[in-house]
Amino acid sequence: MKKVNMKRFIYFFVFFLLLTLSLFAVMNALDSRTIQNSLVNTAKNQVSYAESVVNDMLYEAGMYAIQYTADSSVRFYQRQILELGSYDAQMKKNDIEERMKNTLLSSQSVESLGIYWRAEGTFIATRGETLADDIYGSVDKRGWKHVNGSLYYFSVYPYVREPRTPEDIEYMVGVKLKTDYLRNLLQKSFNGGSSDAFFLVGDDLTISDGTLLDGIANKARETVSPDPKHILRFDYSSQGGDYFVLSKYIEPIDAYLVTYTRMSDFLEPLNRNRQVFFASIVIILIIGLVVISTFYRNFYRNVYLLNKKFHQVEQGDYAIRILNRPNNEFGSLFGSFNHMVAQIQMLFTSLKTETDLRRNAEMKQLQAQINPHFLYNSLFFIMSMAKSSPEAVIRMSKHLAEYYRYLTRLDSSSVTLATELELADHYLGIMALCKTMDYDIKLPDELKEQPIMPLIIQPIVENAILHGIEERQGAHRVAISVEGAHSGARITVANDGKPLSPEELRALQASVEAPFPPPGTDGIGLWNINQRLKNAYGDSCGLRFALNDWGGLSVMVLVDFSFEEGGAYAFIDRG
């Protein structure tokens, strides 16, 4: 079946190449027109983008001018400085100048702001322009002007109505654009190697980001027309090649945005590629048929077989074998595959058996570690309190029954945080009846049903009482708190018992982190718990120790519920 599919693929490949060859002649004729239209559309998009940036820039400049034209501190400036002293008048001027400078901090396109009272000859500007009268003297209305090779927007006061004569103008605000910003805009918008652009401003000003093509500016001035709605096109030829030119009239500043692109850079490679293509297609056809035939005969069938067998192994079929043994490299590869699958099958069988045995042995051992003296002491307490305090006997019996019912029915490799803390609650309740002790357990609702290994918390609580509280006079507090931490949780068991020195803390941490359990019986429980946590939840989990605010010891249990490789918990083999 696969052989038939491979032949169909070969037939399709040959047919596709022949069809491509036959259609190439037709497509090549359309390519020139398509490339040209694409270039023109791209150039139009660039022109539209540059125009939008220029319009935003003009709008920004106009808003700055109107802002200070309508500003009350500017309107009343001349009246106020007549009433103020020299120092206060200078401070008033500095304040207006500083505000104007702060306004321009966020602008990339505006070079300077200036306010000019022609009657008084007063001038305030963000830059030291000394030709205020030459620049502002001829202004008689609001709008854009070309002055000394730069673009200015002027706003006059009164601004609600147009002044009838220049003498009606109280003051004017001028905004000067950055010519370099326009050059940078051209460079960013028209950065192709075969394209360039420039601005025609007025009758003699040309703004560009580099050297212009000879004669293109004069040709543009003769050809462009003031049409603010459409992008106009004309062709231009020179010794360097043939160009198409686009122009867009920007009405507010009476300027033209002109871009030109050399077409020959794109059409000449297309003609050369046409000749190379016909020769290449024949060579590719011959080589392709030879390669496909060789590949199918020597590799495809064997690779397909190996891939199929690997897929079966991924589905869990470890009894699969490859019986075909060709006399080439695949014969050795198939033999290695069979050996690998056989070893995996044996490993999984052995691992499953070992895991089950270890889990059962661990659970039996952990349950056997529960101190039998704890039961004896509880029964003696019941006997001693039977006559004097029946209520205490009832509470003790209830806690004791729930405590041992949990242990005797523990037949799962994992329980929930709520049930584990319930066991600790019963244990602490029993201990609180036997001695003066306060305890507190905090468990967030969202973590109550989170699965966890059994018998992790209770041994730590028991250790806190036996080796902490009972070894310090007056100690009586135990607190258990659970907090979510990233993808896991941090369980803290704190007591106010015997404190440990920094050296003792480091020794305790090193003891539980050791690869083998400590000699004797001291520390076996904590080492066992730490090993189980690492095996179940990863090396980043386990036990941590620290001093708490009570002066006693806090034991932190770190678990990571996202770790999926756990399950084979560690246990102590004393055999």
Number of helices: 15
Helical content (DSSP H or I, runs of 4+): 40-55%
Shape: flat
Q: Structural class from helices and strands?
A: alpha+beta
Determine the N-to-C terminus distance.
60 Å
Report the count of strand segments: 17
Q: Provide the gyration radius in Å.
A: 45 Å
Strand coverage percent: 15-25%
Strand count, sense and barrel status of the largest sheet are: 5 strands, antiparallel
Uncertain runs are 565-575
The main sheet orders its strands as: 2-1-5-4-3
State mean pLDDT (0 to 100 scale).
80
Description of the molecule:
This protein is an alpha+beta fold. The protein is built from 15 helices and 17 strands. The strands form four sheets. A five-stranded antiparallel sheet has the order 2-1-5-4-3. Strands 7-6-10-9-8 form a five-stranded antiparallel sheet, with helices on both faces. Strand 6 and strand 7 form a beta hairpin. Helix 3 packs antiparallel against helix 4. It is flat.
Keyphrases for this structure?
single chain; about 575 residues; five-stranded antiparallel β-sheet; 15 helices; about 20% strand
Concise structural overview:
With 575 residues, the protein is α+β, with helices and mostly antiparallel strands.
